[in-house]
Structure formats: C-alpha cells, structure tokens
Write a structure and sequence with these properties.
alpha+beta, 50s Ribosomal Protein L17, Chain: A, 4 helices, 3-stranded antiparallel beta sheet
C-alpha cells in the first residue's frame, strides 16, 4: 500500500474507501475530496492508469481486483490507458480549493490531466 497515511480509519475501512475513490475518479475523471485523501488517492490512480496502458489479460485481472465496477475497468483499458500511452506518469492534478465549511478540512479537486 503506497503512502503511510491512516486517515483515521481501520485498515479494511481505509482500503475500501480508497478503492471506492479510485473507481469514482476513473469514472467521473474529476472529484472533490480532502487534500490528504487526494494525495493518498493519487498513488493508487497512477498505478491503475499504468496498468491500463498495457492491455494484457494479467493487467485487466489486476485492475478488476481493485476497481469495484467492471464498466470502469473497461473504460480504463479502452479510453484512459491509450490516452496516456506516451506519458510516463503524472496523470493526475490536485488543485487546493480552501477549507470545508463544516469542519475547516482543507479541500481539493483531483482530476485526470
């Protein structure tokens, strides 16, 4: 697991949350979350896109084991992967947007470049 942030959750809860965020980001291509989550999310999304660049059965199965929706995995290999074929990393961008109103948590938008 990349990074060492615990995000105030148990291991299983943290992994499930990150899987959900990765799936949602690849589906929508742009999401709003906290800065800390966005930084942790970036590492996993980059790994998934790197898998998506090389369309092999092994890579598809690895992606399917992490991404929670089959149609998002299909999109990863059919659209997102080929789009970044000539790029050697840095597929995401994090833009800080200021504190959240309720608890002043620093918020950010993470999007695919």
């Amino acid at each position: 697991m990349p990074g060492s942030r615990k995000l105030g959750r148990s291991t299983s809860h943290r992994k499930a949350m990150l899987r959900g965020l990765v799936t949602y980001l690849l589906e929508k291509e742009k999401i709003e979350t906290t800065v800390v989550r966005a930084k942790e999310l970036r590492a996993m999304v980059e790994k998934m896109i790197t898998l998506g660049k090389i369309n092999t059965l092994h890579n598809k199965r690895q992606a399917l084991s992490y991404i929670t929706k089959e149609e998002v995995t299909k999109k990863l290999f059919d659209e997102i992967g080929p789009k970044y074929a000539d790029r050697k990393g840095g597929y995401t961008r994090i833009i800080k947007i200021g504190p959240r109103r309720g608890d002043s948590a620093e918020m950010a938008i993470i999007e695919l470049v």
